[in-house]
User: Fold this.
Amino acid sequence: MLIIMVLMVAAFYFLIIAPQRKRQKAAKKMLSELKSGDKVLTIGGAIGTVTNIKEKTLVIRFGDNAKIEFIKSAVQEKLTPSDDKPDVEVKPELESK
Assistant:
């Protein structure tokens, strides 16, 4: 019975705790490497450009130069230039005669 309990704890650690720690480390590293000009995605789904970075917050510029201050943990990911391109090419509809 003791062996089963130890195996369950080990499985729980390797399947849940270790991957979560790895994700937290990657997120912390990404936040520490942010700089002005980086394009980011917030947890709310808004995409903008970082304009100013403070100790616990950062200012993100959206669309028509609207600037909003967020806490750093509100940033979900840093976008790369390839993320800006649409997945599918949108073609205009053909006009019917």
Summary: The longest helix spans residues 2-32. The helical segments are 2-32.
